Amino acid sequence: VVLAPFLLAAACASNEDPAEGGFISGVTGAATGGYQGRVDERQKKADALAEQDAELQQQKSEAALEIEQNEAEIAGLEAELSLLDFQIQDSLDRISNLDRALTDAERQTVNQAQQVAGSSAGADASGTDARLESLKQSVLSARSLADQLAAIESG
Hints:
The chain is an all-alpha fold. Helix 3 packs antiparallel against helix 4. The N and C termini lie far apart (112 Å). It contains 4 helices and no strands. 90% of the residues lie in helices and 0% in strands.
């Protein structure tokens, strides 16, 4: 009888949290399975978090692989760009050289035409034929250079 009020107060003060419930709540929680329910619930949460962590790690690995692939592609494109820059500069140099050669050929053709015109009045037929052939060769060379220049500019 003396203990009845204490037992009644202990029964009313039960708490499902083992850290706060005391001895009577602990015995009650163990006997009724309340603690096991809490353990199972927390285990489910831990398992869900572990699964989520695994998914995030997989995404992280995939992102790292994608970054690595993109960096490799960037390096390849930069190398290709450098090669194209070199090829463009080389083509510009060749165009410049062909342009100078064309100008020289045109100048030479004009000089030869003037020589042929100036000497045709008193020259013999064989000399005039040789100069005429030389002039034709100069014109052909100039045309060839012009064609090469046009091909480079269009390509």
